[in-house]
Design brief:
The protein has 475 residues and is of the alpha+beta class. It has 18 helices and 17 strands. Strands 3-2-1-4-12-13 form a 6-stranded mixed sheet, with no helix packed on it. A hairpin with a 5-residue loop joins strand 5 and strand 6. Helix 13 crosses helix 15.
């Protein structure tokens, strides 16, 4: 009998332990995935609240009302069609075509689910219809409008798909985010729905594409960390490097001769970076990529970002060599590549991207104020300082001269990434960079699908972004 009681106690303790674990996991899950679950179209409470609660207003960082609810209970957006189109991927639309826009992802605030019982009772006693919280975003809607205008009027970018992200590299505040093509959330047409370029897709946060030579930031960081003799190492670029049965080539078959890592970075030499990757080895390069967030599960509180990938299995020498130049099966979003550039600018510290500047309850209660959050340290301070010099060289004398802005010191990296659209080979144009000025601490990433050259197509868009910031942001 005594042995039986002991067994019962052990079983009871085991069951209690399972319940505690389940409870702790439930708390963790709600804290981590709560907004993702809440804004799901399958959430009946969310759908019911949309019909009975006056959703709160959304304003940008300058007080411009981006979304509000009219007298008929309809969600309406800015009166300017250009502004509506430019911010549609930030906010989303009434029908939920854009995934995880602020209007749906922050529904717990906008539909009043964070309102306390005291606030609800007070509103009921006053005979007021339940109203959600008002949000102030870190976004600058005029900057978004300017970016779309640059894309749509550019000789090399008009009509093309793409994306741009702009963030404060010291705080993580996302001040600009656009995805092309855009559409008007107020009047969605059949043409929008049938558009083969998929305008509802948020390329800034969801498209994981080969980053091309912008990934050389990470390859260079890995070399600086793992190769003690890298400062004196030279690579020979004849325009073609034989690796197994394939040839690594440079953009437009360029030949750079004998180059150091710094020079190879400045002229964006694929051959040198392929050789560097083989010398590093896949394990070291992958480790550095993962230090920058590749292969991590991005669970940011205010922005849903598709995970970036550095392959982990079945790697041969050709794949490793091309990985050094940001090809192979590497994939990253414009948001993540903006974070990479921002981390270099911020002395190696990568901030979590944030979009909520403030949340105010209908009674004037401050629900939330912006606080920066460090995501991770990507590289040591010394390596970040070296890469800052490399990236400034790219814009001063290398492939990124089109990103220059008078009166600013710009640092950056271009990329021309081989890809395919509907099985047709294309070259995607990339640029990532930042303003090297603590009074204007902004980084950006630009992607132009089928744009060809990052230096001649993406870099000028970045220049337009940086010029707008210089002329309109307080320094």
């Amino acid at each position: 009998m005594k042995q039986l009681r002991t067994r019962f106690r052990v079983l009871a303790l085991f069951v209690v332990g399972l319940l505690v674990v389940a409870g702790l996991y439930g708390v963790y899950s709600v804290a981590t995935y709560g907004s993702r679950w809440f804004s799901s179209s399958r959430n009946v409470r969310y759908q019911a609240a949309k019909r009975t609660v006056i959703a709160g207003d959304i304003t940008d960082r300058n007080g411009v009302v981006m979304a509000t609810t009219d007298a008929q209970g309809e969600r309406v957006y800015q009166s300017s069609i250009k502004a509506r189109r430019a911010t549609v991927h930030v906010l989303g639309d009434r029908d939920g075509n854009v995934a995880n826009g602020v209007d749906s992802f922050q529904a717990n605030y906008l539909l009043g689910f964070e309102t306390s019982l005291t606030e609800r009772v007070a509103a009921l006693l006053r005979g007021q219809t339940r109203r959600g919280d008002d949000l102030t975003l870190t976004i600058d809607s005029k900057l978004c409008t300017r970016i779309v205008n640059i894309f749509e009027t550019g000789a090399d970018t008009a009509g093309k798909s793409g994306a741009a992200v702009v963030m404060n590299y010291k705080t993580g505040e996302v001040v600009g985010l656009v995805s092309l093509p855009v559409f008007d959330p107020q009047t969605i047409t059949d043409q929008d729905r049938q558009n083969p370029q998929h305008p509802f897709w948020n390329r800034a946060l969801q498209s994981t594409l080969a980053p091309g030579s912008t990934f050389k930031i990470i390859t260079a960081a890995s070399a600086l960390e793992n190769m003690s003799n890298i400062a004196t190492t030279t690579f020979v670029c004849t325009g073609a490097t034989q690796v197994l049965d394939q040839v690594i080539h440079d953009y437009k078959l360029a030949q750079h001769g004998s180059v150091t890592l710094e020079k190879a970075f400045t002229v964006s030499c694929n051959n040198a970076f392929a050789q560097c990757a083989l010398m590093l080895g896949d394990q070291n390069l992958r480790k550095t990529a993962e230090d920058f967030g590749f292969n991590d599960n991005f669970l940011f509180r205010e922005v849903v970002v598709e995970n970036s990938v550095y392959p982990t299995q079945n790697r041969n020498a050709v794949q490793v060599a091309w990985s050094g130049a940001g090809q192979s099966d590497i994939g990253a979003t414009p948001m993540h590549m903006c974070m990479v550039a921002a981390a270099i600018a911020n002395d190696g510290v990568m901030m979590e991207p944030r979009m909520l500047q403030a949340v105010m309850g209908p009674g004037g209660v401050t629900r939330l104020r912006y606080t920066p959050k460090v995501y991770r340290r990507a590289v040591p301070v010394g390596i970040a300082a070296t890469l800052q010099t490399y990236m400034q060289n790219v814009v001063a004398t290398g492939t990124g001269t089109a990103a220059r802005v008078s009166g600013l010191t710009i640092a950056g990296k271009t990329g021309s990434a081989e890809a395919s659209i509907d099985n047709v080979p294309v070259t995607n144009a990339w640029f990532v960079g930042y303003i090297a000025d603590d009074s204007l601490p902004y980084a950006c990433a630009v992607l132009v699908e089928a744009g060809d050259s990052g230096g001649s197509v993406a870099a000028p868009i970045a220049a337009g972004i940086f010029k707008y910031i210089k002329d309109n942001f307080t320094n």
